[in-house]
Write a structure and sequence with these properties.
- The protein is an alpha/beta fold.
- Helix content is about 25%, strand content about 25%.
- It is built from five helices and eight strands; from the N terminus they run αβαββαβαβββαβ.
- Strands 4-2-3-5-8 form a five-stranded mixed sheet. It has a three-stranded antiparallel sheet with strand order 1-7-6.
Length: about 160
């Protein structure tokens, strides 16, 4: 799914969301240069794999958090983790670097990617801001709706504390 198809999908499913169009954002530092309506809900996304290249994970945490892959490995009993290649990102999720998003799992036809979602998104407003498979916009939505989309698609989702 491309950006417009994501918009259409959310509308068709009648899922509340707001869209913020902006310049391309490749890193969290880039985001500080644009005005966003819900900065506390912005997400940082990492696409990683295990050392055997058999298991792939999309880790989504609050934008201001640091991610310790060793701690995530230990807490979730995975093999050692490292960043997946741009090739893997394109082949599995149909995304380019800088556009990683949990909505990318809608392109995961073989359900190979497991999603780790930060439990902190479920507190407070319950909002999360993610790219619509393109880094020139952010979709603000309820994290519970995002979790349900991922589950409905068939990908495994785990709520993590980090």
């Amino acid at each position: 799914m491309n950006k417009q198809e994501i918009y259409d999908y959310l509308k068709e499913k009648n899922i509340w969301h707001e869209i913020t169009e902006h310049i391309a954002v490749y890193h969290m530092d880039d985001l500080s240069k644009i005005e966003i309506p819900y900065p506390e809900a912005d997400a940082k996304n990492l696409f990683v794999r295990d050392d055997k290249k058999k298991s792939y994970y999309l880790i989504t945490v609050k934008g201001d958090k640091r991610v310790n892959l060793k701690e995530i490995r230990k807490a979730n009993q995975t093999r050692p983790l490292s960043f997946a290649s741009e090739n893997d990102l394109m082949n599995l999720l149909g995304l380019v670097a800088g556009s990683v998003t949990p909505l990318g799992v809608l392109n995961d036809q073989n359900l190979k990617v497991k999603v780790f979602l930060d439990q902190d998104f479920f507190e407070g407003s319950g909002l999360i801001g993610v790219h619509p498979n393109d880094n020139t916009a952010t979709i603000w939505m309820k994290v519970i709706d995002l979790a349900n989309i991922i589950k409905e698609h068939g990908n495994e989702i785990t709520i993590i504390s980090c």
